[in-house]
Design goal:
By secondary structure, the chain is mainly α. The protein has one domain. 75% of the residues lie in helices and 0% in strands. Helix 1 (5-21) crosses helix 3 (42-72), helix 1 crosses helix 4 and helix 3 runs antiparallel to helix 4.
């Protein structure tokens, strides 16, 4: 099974974070993506992969915290702020994924309305 490069790298970085957070409960998933990652020139994208891993760790922490909001009686304005923060991180994720595609000369890009002008410059 083949994934577009940006999806493979994204899923791999999510699996890395999940592996760290679940004490390895997703080993088969991580192994699956790791095997496919071997086909890529990792040296070219090493920095972006590290950025995606950190970004997914941040999203994981925010979503975990976000789930607790209802239990902690957090007001709707704070819940909205946190949701916007997660959205902003996901927008950064799109930018990083598209940079990876550019570095690896892969034609597949993720297109979100906020990133249309960014893609015209690639």
């Amino acid at each position: 099974m083949k994934f577009p490069v940006i999806e493979l790298v994204d899923r791999y970085t999510i699996a890395v974070v999940k592996h760290q957070k679940t004490q390895g409960a997703n080993q088969a998933e991580l192994d699956f993506y790791t095997a496919q990652m071997r086909e890529l020139d990792i040296a070219l994208i090493q920095y972006e992969v590290a950025r995606l891993i950190q970004l997914h760790a941040d999203i994981w922490a925010m979503e975990d915290d976000f789930k607790k909001c209802r239990l902690d009686g957090v007001d709707l304005a704070e819940i909205g702020r946190r949701a916007l923060d997660i959205r902003d991180l996901n927008n950064s994720r799109v930018t990083i994924k598209n940079r990876i595609a550019q570095l690896l000369d892969d034609p597949i890009r993720e297109i979100k309305q906020d990133h249309v002008s960014e893609l015209k410059n690639v």
